[in-house]
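Hello forum,

I keep getting stuck at the same step: I have a sequence, I want structure tokens, and every attempt I make locally crashes halfway through. Rather than fight my setup again tonight, could one of you with a working pipeline run this one for me? It's a single chain of 95 residues.
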Amino acid sequence: MIYSQFGWAIHQNDHQARRRFVEWAQNEIAVVPDFHKRILFSDQAHFWLNGYVNKQNCRIWSEANPQVYVETPLHQEKLTVWCALWAGGILLQKR
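Reply #2:
Ran it on my machine without issues. Output:
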């Protein structure tokens, strides 16, 4: 899926939207000579620091109550990375 600066979602099988996007891009290239240098590709990813993927919010370890509990955080520590590539280089942001 491709997103443009206008928030268009261009799906693989949406040929009309893809054609409109190409026509718009060709027009921009004709009007703005360095248009290709203004294109920015970006994405974001979340990395949990302990390698864990949270699939459930609680665990039952035994049918009998052992009167002991292990406290684990509901939201594990994670690092969010946003990266963008463009003609001017690489932009990277960590949160």
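The helical segments are 15-31. If your local run keeps crashing, start a new thread with the error log.
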